[in-house]
Structure formats: structure tokens, C-alpha cells
Specification:
34% of the residues lie in helices and 24% in strands. It has six helices and seven strands. The termini are close together. Bound molecules: glycinamide ribonucleotide.
């Protein structure tokens, strides 16, 4: 089935822990109808996540769960997701690991963006490790979330060339630019399966 943009939109929730540049990018794509999703909910595990300001800016409901008791919080989140008929979860710089049980309940409907060319450099501090190892390329990956960290099926990837005098800051900015391109593309790609 091919979903035509503008008619058959699905509800999506975005999980963040930090700045939220990917979140805002996805919101813009949804608002100018370049993506057939409505972002109805923003979740965060941090009260002070900078990206939460986009909830106010774009009038989107926000929910904060600190994940101190992961099972309890996930139960509450699942209720909210059901109530709001959320069909897609985008992890956009969300730094908590979701439980197997949670992932099973949303099997095939949770996607994550990671700042490396997976399967290389799973986990944290990717840019530091890439530079230390003198890699020629890094990049970013959008993948389905499964029960193993950064290991689900890859949806899209984009390579970024490492430059001679690269720093973590410079490299992460160049990779982030590419993230903003491939995250919406990846959502378009999987829409028929949602
Ligand atoms: C992005 O670079 C994303 O790939 C990364 O956090 C950053 C969030 O930026 N995610 C991870 O490292 C997940 N393990 P943003 O808050 O500006 O979208």
C-alpha cells in the first residue's frame, strides 16, 4: 500500500534527552506536509532537556518520565501511547535503553538515529572513538530498535568523510546535518509497513 501524503497520516511520538534538533527537524517536515505523520507527543527522561522547548513552540503535548523505575514509567508511557493512538516512535537523541518488553509491544514501530555507521561504533562517545581510531569515514544510521543496543535492522545510512583537522565538535555538526536529511527519509521509506 502506498500512503499519499496529506490523506492518511499516522500519529508519532518522539523521545529525546537533549537538544532536540532532530525533533524540530521532524516537526517541520510533518508541518509542511513533507512527511505523513503528526507528532502528537514528546517524551523526555530529563526535565531540563533543551528540546522540550519545542513542545511549547509547536504546541505539542510533552511528558517527562525520569526512568528511575523503568518498568513503572514504561507502563505509564505505553498507556499514553495507546490513548493517543501513536503508531510510530522516533528516538531522537534519547539516551535511555528501553526494555525488551516495551520494544516487543511496539515491535517494528520504534526507530532510532545513531551518529555512526552502524554496526561500527555502537553506544556512546562515537565521534571521539572514530577520531581516535583515525577512521576515514563516519556517518549516521537510522535503524529499527530491537532488544540489543544499536543493533536493529538498518533503514538508511549516510557516510561522512573525516577531515584532516577534524574535532568532535566539527564532525558532530557535519554528521548532524546529514541526520536531519536521513531521519525523515527513513520514515518515508518505512511508512508502508507501519
Ligand atoms: C544526535 O547526534 C543523535 O544521533 C545522537 O544524539 C544526538 C541528538 O541530537 N543519538 C545518540 O547518540 C543515541 N545513542 P539532537 O538532540 O540535536 O537531535
Amino acid at each position: 500500500m502506498v500512503r499519499s501524503i496529506g490523506s492518511d497520516r499516522i500519529n508519532a511520538g518522539v523521545f529525546i534527552s537533549g537538544t532536540g534538533s532532530n525533533l524540530e527537524n521532524l516537526i517541520k517536515f510533518s508541518l509542511n506536509k513533507k512527511l505523513p505523520i503528526n507528532i502528537n507527543l514528546i517524551f523526555s527522561d530529563k526535565y531540563n532537556a533543551k528540546g522540550l522547548r519545542f513542545a511549547k513552540k509547536y504546541k505539542i503535548k510533552k511528558k517527562i518520565y525520569l526512568f528511575k523505575n523503568k518498568m513503572n514509567d514504561e507502563k505509564k508511557i505505553l498507556k499514553v501511547l495507546k490513548k493517543n493512538k501513536i503508531k510510530l516512535i522516533c528516538l531522537a537523541g534519547f539516551m535511555k535503553i528501553l526494555s525488551k518488553n516495551f520494544i516487543k509491544k511496539f515491535d517494528g514501530k520504534i526507530i532510532n538515529i545513531h551518529p555512526s555507521l552502524l554496526p561500527k561504533y555502537k553506544g556512546l562517545k562515537t565521534h571521539e572513538r572514530v577520531l581516535q581510531n583515525k577512521e576515514k569515514f563516519s556517518g549516521c544510521t537510522v535503524h529499527y530498535v530491537n532488544s540489543k543496543l544499536d543493533s536493529g535492522k538498518i533503514i538508511l545510512q549516510k557516510k561522512v568523510k573525516i577531515r584532516k583537522n577534524d574535532t568532535v565538535d566539527k564532525l558532530s555538526k557535519r554528521i548532524l546535518k546529514q541526520e536531519h536529511k536521513i531521519f525523515p527519509e527513513a520514515i518515508k521509506k518505512i511508512m508502508p509497513n507501519l
